[in-house]
Amino acid sequence: MNDGNVPFYKRKIGCVGSVLIGVALFFVIGLLGSLLLGDDYSSNSTNRSAFDTDTTDTEPTTTATEKEYQLVTTFTGQGDKDTESFTITSDKVKLVATAPSGILFVKLQADDESYLGTTGIDIDSDYTERTAETIYRNLDKGSYYLKVIATKSWKVDVYQEVEVSK
């Protein structure tokens, strides 16, 4: 078959030709769109369409906040102890336990004795150099206490996540 007698729109162009035509069409559509819309519909334009409800060019004011952990309570003691109840008003808590020597196990318990999973801290400073440990937990808001099992003196700080203004 002689390609000289076949009109250009009926010729086989192959894969590369198809891609080139697609890119050209994309470019032409983008060019037409920018010409038709122009700068009249930019976010800084004073000529807004009828569908826009914002009539001013001012930015909305928002207060920037960040999250940090705030101390709720501190417990200290020597030996085994169930602490007094404390209230968590956030959904994230951080426990920092310290035992300069000896063995320390701290378990976070809900006042209603509901199962919280593995929420414990285990420190054995007699056999390791580690004397402090920190854990983070997602919790429901509510009342909790700590069940502490220790061979010597210990300290546990309880923090909750809060939002503060910058």
Put the structure in a nutshell.
The protein is mainly beta.
Give your account of this protein's structure.
- There is one protein chain.
- The protein is mainly β and 166 residues long.
- It contains 1 helix and 9 strands.
- Strands 2, 3, 5, 6 and 8 form a 5-stranded antiparallel beta sheet that branches.
- The protein folds into 2 domains: 1-48; 65-165, Jelly Rolls (Sandwich), CATH 2.60.120.380.
- It is elongated.
- Mean pLDDT is 77; it is low at 40-52.
Query: Can you tell me the number of structural domains?
Result: 2
What is the CATH-assigned architecture of the largest domain? Sandwich
Which percent bin holds the helix content? 10-25%
The biggest sheet, with number of strands, parallel, antiparallel or mixed sense and barrel status, is: 5 strands, antiparallel
**Which class do the helix and strand fractions yield?**
mainly beta
Q: Can you count the helices?
A: 1
Name the descriptors.
single chain, 166 residues, mainly beta, Jelly Rolls, five-stranded antiparallel sheet, four-stranded antiparallel sheet, 1 helix, 9 strands, elongated
Topology:
Layout: H1 14-37, E1 65-78, E2 81-82, E3 86-88, E4 92-98, E5 103-110, E6 120-124, E7 132-138, E8 142-150, E9 153-165
